[in-house]
Design the sequence.
């Protein structure tokens, strides 16, 4: 799927290099670290996942930014209700979950929610940051997943992704 990637200008020394990712089918554009790996239709759940490089040779987990896009045209669901459903799903699926942030925000000129939480999966402590909105009859859910002790190292990648995230108007 090389046609979805375009290379941005080279950064200054010491800065992270980013590439512009364009997905016309799902209707969005953003910037991602150029050395991260792209996986589309990841595990049948996420539309697109960008995986960081392994920290060491036998690294069993790589931090990621995932984007799930769901058609919600058959549902007349307000964003507030979508947020409530999302939080309840998380509470039911993750062990020792603690919601840190659940607040209104905006993304790509649309109202949204920012949800940050920690929990345990497969005996590892993780921290997630999700931002989501509903636009053009689609729910866009963007998630940073990182080991809890490494979350802060990856938060700036998520910030860049969110700040550059644009939902196409003609989807």
Sequence:
């Amino acid at each position: 799927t090389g046609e979805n990637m375009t290379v941005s200008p080279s950064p200054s020394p010491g800065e992270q290099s980013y590439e512009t990712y364009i997905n016309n089918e799902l209707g969005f554009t953003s910037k991602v670290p150029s050395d991260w790996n792209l996986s589309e239709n990841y595990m049948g759940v996420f539309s697109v996942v960008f995986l960081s490089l392994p920290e060491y040779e036998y690294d069993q987990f790589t931090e990621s930014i995932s984007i799930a896009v769901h058609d919600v045209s058959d549902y007349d669901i307000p964003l507030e209700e979508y947020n409530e459903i999302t939080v309840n799903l998380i509470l039911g699926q993750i062990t020792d979950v603690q919601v840190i942030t659940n607040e209104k925000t905006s993304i790509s000129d649309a109202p949204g929610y920012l949800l940050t939480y920690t929990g345990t999966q497969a005996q590892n402590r993780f921290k997630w940051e999700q931002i989501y909105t509903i636009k053009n009859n689609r729910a866009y859910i963007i998630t940073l997943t990182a080991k809890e002790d490494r979350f802060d190292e990856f938060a700036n990648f998520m910030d860049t992704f969110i700040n550059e995230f644009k939902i196409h108007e003609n989807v």
Helices lie at 79-93, 151-164. The chain has two helices and eleven strands.
